[in-house]
Write a structure and sequence with these properties.
This protein is an alpha/beta fold and 395 residues long. The chain has two domains: 274 residues, 3-Layer(aba) Sandwich (Aminopeptidase); 114 residues, Alpha-Beta Plaits, CATH 3.30.70.360. It is 35% helix and 26% strand. The protein contains ten helices and 16 strands. It has an eight-stranded mixed sheet, sandwiched between helices. Strands 10-12-8-13 form a four-stranded antiparallel sheet. Helix 3 crosses helix 10. The longest helix is centred in the N-terminal third of the chain and has 28 residues. The two termini are 15 Å apart. The mean pLDDT is 97.
């Protein structure tokens, strides 16, 4: 029976592939930034309407939530795809190159939406024989705080009734098409943004006795804060503290500025340590600034929490992946210090977030996500939609 169902899903995925490729290329050509995905939302709404799949709009701004009812009053399984693009100028020379200059689907969200649409077609075709019902979440704003997932949760997307579980799929260009990757338990890090403003007394660089050197104080703050990772954190807890931006407000070769602005990120895999580290960042920055006669203001914006794949649910999903793709095509993944707002869902209900291989080294499709040359082997769409439908059914 399961073999027949797998064959049926695979046949449907194959039949829908040409249409899903067209959908993916349209979405890729017309990307929109976080929380302004209106045209994307309208396009998906038109597709769902034509497929007679009911939906509601306005979730988190431009999000859509569709529902497919099974024939028996079973439980609800949620499936999620993100909708937003990135502020990147695309350099690919392809017919579906971004027509919205400076905006690009460089993280594969066009793929995520297309695969969820394909899975929706398959589930809708099979609904009369299915026990469970399915909530399809097209979510805005994954790439920008506070994260569309947090908004949708606050608006009740995981209520009335509460789903049994939620599935999320993400492109993985370093993995060859045909493979998928998965990991149980802690998988991705929390991510917070750090903003530090260092204030002193500027002046002529040749008269250091008359100034409070904000450049020197800032450099020492950066050095001191690294002790949080090297001397304060438990070595068993993955932790990253990095600063990617430091700007003086004014200043020159011979002018010390009154103000320096510093921006960075803090990531870890433990929520208790995360809170403790925030306090240490503030404390050490203030104390270091004071020791150089300066003052500072520290703002930490809480980002996404740790992404936790539910142990039992994810092990079950891994077994189903093996049934669908073969053991040789299911890869165990290491933890990642990148972050994802799907983590918000994983804090509320059992979640499984897995990776879809989209690379093809032989064809030169190897560019990482968040780069101007990112693209996929589109045969991954057939696997992505079919596998997602299969995992949703087999709960």
């Amino acid at each position: 029976m399961k073999t027949n169902l797998i064959d049926s899903i695979k046949n449907k995925a194959s039949e829908y592939l040409p249409e899903i490729i067209k959908i993916r290329r349209h979405l890729h050509k017309y990307p929109e930034l976080s929380f302004v995905e209106k045209n994307t939302s309208d396009y998906i709404a038109e597709i769902l309407t034509n497929a007679n799949i009911p939906y509601t709009t306005g979730w988190g701004g431009h999000g859509l939530v569709a529902n497919i009812e099974g024939s028996i009053n079973g439980q609800v399984i949620a499936l999620r795809a993100d909708m937003d693009g990135l502020p990147i100028f695309e350099e690919n020379n392809v017919p579906y190159k971004s027509a919205n200059e400076g905006v690009m689907h460089a993280c594969g969200h066009d793929v995520h939406m297309s695969c969820l649409i394909g899975a929706a077609f398959i589930l809708n075709d099979l609904k009369d024989s299915l026990v469970n019902s399915y909530r399809l979440i097209f979510q805005p704003g994954e790439e920008k705080l506070p994260g569309g997932a947090s908004l949708l949760i606050s608006e009740g997307v995981l209520q009335n009734p509460k789903p049994k579980s939620i599935l999320g799929q993400h492109v993985f260009p370093s993995m060859e098409v045909g493979q998928v990757g998965i990991r149980t338990g802690l998988y991705m890090a929390s991510s917070d943004e750090i903003y530090i403003e260092v204030n002193g007394k500027g002046g002529h660089a040749a008269m250091p006795n008359d100034i409070v050197d904000t450049i020197l104080a800032s450099s020492q703050i950066l050095i001191a804060l690294q002790q949080i990772v090297s001397r304060k954190s438990n070595p068993a807890i993955p932790t990253v503290l990095s600063f990617g931006k430091i700007n003086s407000v004014g200043g020159a070769t011979n002018v010390i500025p009154n103000k320096v602005l510093i921006e960075g990120t803090f990531r870890t895999m433990d929520e208790n340590w995360r809170k403790e580290a925030h306090n240490l960042i503030v404390q050490i920055a203030h104390q270091t600034a004071s020791s150089y006669g300066a003052t500072c203001e520290v703002k930490i914006e809480n980002g996404y929490p740790c992404l936790i794949n539910d142990h039992d649910f994810t092990l079950t999903a891994k077994g189903k992946m093996v049934e669908y793709l073969g053991k040789e095509n299911v890869v165990d993944l290491p933890i990642r210090m990148t972050s994802e707002d799907f983590a918000f869902y994983s804090q509320v209900i059992p979640a499984c977030f897995y990776r879809l291989g989209t690379g093809n080294a032989a064809k030169g499709i190897v560019s990482p996500v968040h780069t101007s040359t990112f693209d996929i082997d589109e045969s991954a769409l057939e696997i992505g939609m079919g596998l997602m439908a299969w995992l949703a059914i087999e709960q």
